[in-house]
Amino acid sequence: MKYRYLGNSNLRVSAVGLGTWAYGNDTFGQVEDQQSIRAIRAAVDAGINLIDTAPAYGAGHAEKVVGQAIEGIRDKVIIASKCGTHRDGPKYIRDLRPKRIRKELEDSLRRLNVEQIDLYQIHWPDPDTPLEKSVEELLKLKKEGKFKYLGVCNFELDMLDKISRMTDVISLQPQYSLLKRDIETEISTYLIDNNLGALSYGTLGGGILSAKYKERPEFDDEKDKRSGFYPFFKKENWPQTQSLIRLLEEMADKQNQTPAQIAINWSINRPGITTALVGAKNEKQARENAAAADFELTEAEMLALTQESDKVIKNLKI
């Protein structure tokens, strides 16, 4: 496993991190809690030390699962959680009012069974609450010792720059993969120039880049909502992705890796990316994800993937 410092902090994080959205059991199908706990433990055993979660994942359920999994190994992991987004039935509500932030943080500490969260992140911007008010409350909570470092997720460049002028943030969590590269236009340069870390999510595009789907999957939207979040599964986009999937499979054969490992390795070696967050529903996936940092793609392979990605993205209807 490779380890890197996150921005200008003293958090030394693994190049592959563990995303826990699936453990909420309401977005990526059902996962049995004990299986999730075993997957988390396997990830840590394999060298992954960054675990990213959020109250919005299963209305706090994912945090509870993480809390159980890290019991006895708290010193081996860096915990990242979030505020500002909560569930109201099937809806995600963005709410960064100070009162809500305080409640969410205290609830997260209780569910995770920790005294302090290492990286606390604003999950999504809230257009109805002045950012200054949210930051003021977050700084109070930081001073109280409830979290160590502040980060943000899903911020566009103007918002990222705005909050960076208000206070110290160490990282951005954007969606980034071979099928989603918007941040390369301006944000990646900003991150590098300002020594900010990046925890990229959606590394496998909801699983499409694992090449495990030989035909376009039809997800049960009641139990598995990924096709609503990742448009690559839509009928009009599925054919456009297949040339990239084939290239991943070819490289995987040559490297004696899986297509998912090739996609993850590409991501962690792109400019500005500190850690690629990847979900794991079982121990095997967790170990394979971790091993994605243990080999090197050649410059020619990196370039070929990037060029094929360029072609595919131009034809996606998003």
From TrEMBL:
All residue ranges annotated as the NADP-dependent oxidoreductase domain in the record: 16-306
MF terms (GO), sorted A to Z: oxidoreductase activity
PROSITE patterns given in the database record: ALDOKETO_REDUCTASE_2
Cross-referenced CDD domains: AKR_AKR11B1-like
GO cellular component, one term: cytosol
Cited Pfam families: Aldo_ket_red (PF00248)
Keywords: Oxidoreductase
KW Transit peptide (keyword) present: no
Source species, domain of life: Bacteria
Name of the molecule in the record: Aryl-alcohol dehydrogenase-like predicted oxidoreductase
Originating species: Halanaerobium saccharolyticum
